[in-house]
Structure formats: structure tokens, C-alpha cells
Design brief:
Largest sheet: 4 strands, antiparallel
Structural class: alpha+beta
Strand content: 35-45%
Number of helices: 2
Low-confidence stretches: none
Radius of gyration: 23 Å
Distance between the termini: 74 Å
CATH superfamily of the domain at 36-120: N-utilization substance G protein NusG, insert domain
Bound molecules: zinc ion
Helix content: 10-25%
Length: 130
Amino acid sequence: MNNKLISKKDLILLAALLFAALLVFSAFGKIRSKGNYLIVTRDGEVVVRELLTEEKEIRIESEDGGYNIIRIIRTDEGNFAVMCSESNCPEKICVNKGQVVLTDDPIVCLPHKMTAKLVKKQKQKQKCCQ
Ligand SMILES: [Zn+2]
């Protein structure tokens, strides 16, 4: 009996499809694992968790009428930086901080109890007890 339900050609096609699917998957995986986040906290609470995919501006309002404009900026190397481009706080320490990248300290606006920082997507192990 000659069982030709699945021919050699079909098998090759199937293998090619699987391979292509695998490639797509691994490509997606790479893009995903590269994704970093902007985290903005206000009064200790996370109010913005934004995946860095494009340049944008986010307005953070504080309860007493204060605000910070947080900007996500694409750097020349294709990474992202973040800065506080505008604020109505008195000393503008947050604005003067300029751009920060993943490895930098967070932007802090004490009057508005606001912090903005970039974090890696993977959960970072907490450094404890130094
Ligand atoms: Zn400020």
C-alpha cells in the first residue's frame, strides 16, 4: 500500500512553515525582552507604567494643582531617555535634571512628590540590606 496522504513535499512545506513561525516568535521575544518601561510614581504610588515604544509626552497632575510634563525621547542610539520638560514647581529641580536613561537616578520632583524613572522589563531583584 502506498500511503501518500503526506508527501515529502508537504513535509518540507510544513517544516518551512514551522521554521518561519519559530523565527517570528523568537523575533517577537527579542523585541519584548528589550522593552523598557517608564515608571512614574506620585506620592509613592505608580501612576504611569508606559512601555517605551515611541516618543511621547505625559502630563502628571498632582492633587494640589501641580503638574509635571514627562517626555519620552528617542536617543541617537535607538534607546529611550526621559525628562521632565515642564513643571510648575518652585525650584524646577526636576526640569533641571535633564534627560535620564535607564542607568541614571530617577527624576524627582519633591514639591509634587513625583518620581520618573526608566526600568528594565524584567523584574529586577531587590537589592537588600546594605
Ligand atoms: Zn519639580
